[in-house]
């Protein structure tokens, strides 16, 4: 009976570790894609703002400014994912990827 309980606890621990590893892989992939997204936004926004400034094209200036909000949102997502991948500690027993009110 005691051996069965120990086996169940070990199985639960292995499942937890596998789920945590899968979660960290997804987090890493999401952060890579966000960095790529950030790079494209920076290039596009800089080009549109520069060309819009030279040519006084209102549409390019407006879209370049609109892309700045995309850059801001991407940075917020990167900060959130960075925080979510931190390991568990005394205050966050289930890790930092779960937010509960
Ligand atoms: Zn913490």
One letter per element, helices H and strands E, the order comes to: HH
How many separate domains? 1
Ions, cofactors and other bound molecules: zinc ion
| Average pLDDT rating | 90
State the total count of DSSP E strands.
0
Total helical elements: 2
Span of the ends, CA to CA: 38 Å
| Structural class by SSE content | mainly alpha
Q: Tell me, what's the shape? A: rod-shaped
Low-pLDDT regions: none
Radius of gyration: 22 Å
Largest sheet: none
Q: Percent range for helical residues?
A: over 70%
Strand composition percent = under 5%
Overview features:
101 residues; mainly alpha; 2 helices; binds zinc ion; monoatomic cation transmembrane transporter activity; Cation transporter [Lactobacillus casei]
What's the helix and strand layout?
Layout (H helix, E strand, L loop, with lengths): L1 H54 L2 H27 L17
Helix pairs in contact: 1-2
């Amino acid at each position: 009976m005691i051996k069965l309980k120990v086996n169940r606890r070990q199985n639960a621990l292995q499942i937890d570790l596998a789920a945590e590893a899968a979660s960290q892989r997804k987090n890493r992939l999401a952060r890579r894609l966000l960095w790529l997204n950030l790079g494209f936004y920076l290039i596009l926004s800089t080009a549109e703002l520069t060309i819009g400034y030279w040519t006084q094209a209102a549409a390019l200036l407006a879209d370049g400014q609109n892309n700045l909000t995309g850059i801001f949102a991407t940075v917020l997502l990167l900060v959130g994912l960075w925080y979510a991948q931190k390991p568990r500690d005394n205050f966050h027993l289930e890790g930092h990827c779960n937010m509960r009110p």
